[in-house]
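Let us practice reading a record.
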Amino acid sequence: MTDSISKIQRWLDVIAYLVGRRLPVTVDELMERVPAYAIKWKPGNETDRASVRRTFERDKDELREFGIPIETVEFTINYGLERAQGYQLKRRDFYLPYLRLLEEAAGPPPTVAGVAEFTIAADDAGLALNALRRIADVPSFPLRREARSAFRKMAFDLVPERFDRPPVLDVGGPADDDEGTLRTLSDALLAQKRVAFRYHGLHRNEETERDVAPYGLFFQRGNWYLIGHDKLRDAIRIFRAGRLRDPKVNAARPQTPDYEIPSEFRLDDYLEREAWELGDPEEEGLSAEVRFEFPLSLWAERNGHGEPLREEPDGSSVRSFRVRQVNPFLRWILSLEGEATIISPPELSEGLSELAAQVVELYQGDQEEEGPRA
């Protein structure tokens, strides 16, 4: 079975698991949670486990050679009574810059793990950014879309105070989808223009007209989110891009920004939130109670998932969650493979059962289409 999982997939699984954890991860946790390792680790004897451990050590060393900064760290467990060794991959250290801005570019470009790091002088960077912006505004230019993409990438990495327009705070990927919603939002963000749209709120199940000054865009667990100052609520709000309808950028004075992003605003404060926590603060959401079986209860505590309510005699724990988006929460609980159980409310527990049934039906359908294997 391990042969069916390629080395590349194994590497990606290790990276994804470490990046998704705020606190260090022990070797045992990696062995149990990364599929390629768990296949032999969970049911295996000492020989199998030693083989899996050697595979991980090789993977770790190879990933480090490629420039993936996996750290070996010491941390405390069992309420600080014991020390353990684990691994950590910080998000900020993992993502490499597109571009390095130098005061004076000199000598050949340096390399990071065999990959060239491009350098550009400050004056040249300013000229290039302004040129890209000008040609991106020409409707008939055949490479207009590519120029906009290059502008976004440069604006993200360059020092903002050097230019007359601030960078996109966080795009994280291509700024467009089938309907052009993300392109419209990212264009408004780059130009600092207000954007109007209709928004469907789940709590009241109604659409409202919104007028927002975009502060940032970010991607979280399969969904895009817009964060900005909402004129209707006179406060910062988060909007799921998939619930926006007919976004329109303010066309008045197109070369003049409508607003300034506050200096104290930090998009990182929102990137640390889980997908089910994102949403309009006015939407109270659901209060959920979840039991984590031991030893997953220790993992939930170490990673700060939910708020502790009570400890059970068998080592399990019950933790509470404020759920503003149901589907991401249910998908997360389902990924814990039955070691986390929703106690309340009943509608969430029923929703989890329905989601599990849909997954089973989906995979059974795939097997029927493929037919029996020789």
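A brief commentary: The first strand starts at residue 25 and ends at 26.
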